[in-house]
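Homework help board

Subject: predicted structure for assignment chain

Our instructor gave us this sequence and asked us to write out the predicted structure in token form, then describe one feature. I got the tokens but I'm not sure how to describe them. Can anyone check?
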Amino acid sequence: QVQLVESGGGLVQAGGSLRLSCAASGSIFSVNRMGWYRQGPGNQRDMVASIASSGDTNYADSVKGRFTISRDNAKNTVYLQMNSLKPEDTAVYYCKALIAGRATMAWNDYWGQGTQVTVSS
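My token output:
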């Protein structure tokens, strides 16, 4: 019932920018922490950035100073602004959100289906 829908991926040259969006929908009571993960070919899925409902943020060292995570609580949406992109940023990016659905009133993690980001040199 609860679903995360991602958008904004694509192809970009090194040094360029992209903005990813992820909107949670369904029978939602509350959205807690939201974040972005990525998985490149042959790699594990790693945390890129996360943001608490309060606005406190956390970033992987590899993206600090280049990526910015933000959220719109009224829209249950999280964004990832990616600047100064590098070829090593190429990966499938997944949105994750800790959500309490109205049916259970209990916290559960939900994942988006992923969006491809490709950075060419």
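Reply (TA_rk): Your tokens look well-formed. For the description, you could write something like this. The chain has a mean pLDDT of 97. That's the kind of observation they're looking for.
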